[in-house]
């Protein structure tokens, strides 16, 4: 594994494809929030519904960011599993993914997240992550 910290100011390219508009981290509450602006390119059904894999990616990115921030960029969280419940169709536009840590161990973390579009809850997720310590 790389000897450097993860730099969230230089995000991976997939986040720009997802329309990431950055993140907020409330250290006192232990919550991370990411905003996304999804266009027609990531939809099906004649541009009316955001594809479920992109919904999952937004939730997963939010949970991973939270673990990176909590670990002060010294850990790389690798998803072991992500469970998603799709509650409503997401339409092109702005989304907000909010995540929290449910349990944090030395090498494994359990997180959960919600994805909203305005006041509408689109999906929820839970994940298990292997925590790789960066040197």
- For the CA atoms, what is the radius of gyration? 15 Å
Full CATH superfamily name: Hotdog Thioesterase
Derived structural class:
alpha+beta
Give the distance, in angstroms, between the N- and C-terminal Cα atoms. 8 Å
Per the CATH scheme, the topology name is Thiol Ester Dehydrase, Chain A
Given as residue ranges, the uncertain stretches (5+ residues, pLDDT < 50) are none
Report the sheet with the most strands, covering strand number, pairing sense and barrel closure: 6 strands, antiparallel
- Domain tally: 1
User: What is the number of strand segments?
Assistant: 8
Oligomer: single chain
Series of H and E elements: HEEEEHEEEE
CATH architecture: Roll
CATH class division: Alpha Beta
Query: What is the tally of helical segments?
Result: 2
- Read across the widest sheet, the strand sequence of neighbours is 1-2-6-7-8-5
How confident overall, as mean pLDDT? 94
Estimate the global geometry from the Cα principal axes.
Answer: globular
Fraction of residues in helices?
10-25%
**SS strand fraction:** over 45%
What does this protein look like?
With 135 residues, the chain is of the alpha+beta class. The radius of gyration is 15 Å and the shape is globular. The protein has helices at 13-17, 52-70; strands spanning 20-26, 31-38, 43-44, 49-50, 75-86, 93-104, 108-117, 120-133. The strands form two sheets. Strands 1-2-6-7-8-5 form a six-stranded antiparallel β-sheet. It has one domain (13-133): Thiol Ester Dehydrase, Chain A (Roll), CATH 3.10.129. It is 18% helix and 50% strand. The mean pLDDT is 94. The protein has two helices and eight strands, in the order αββββαββββ.
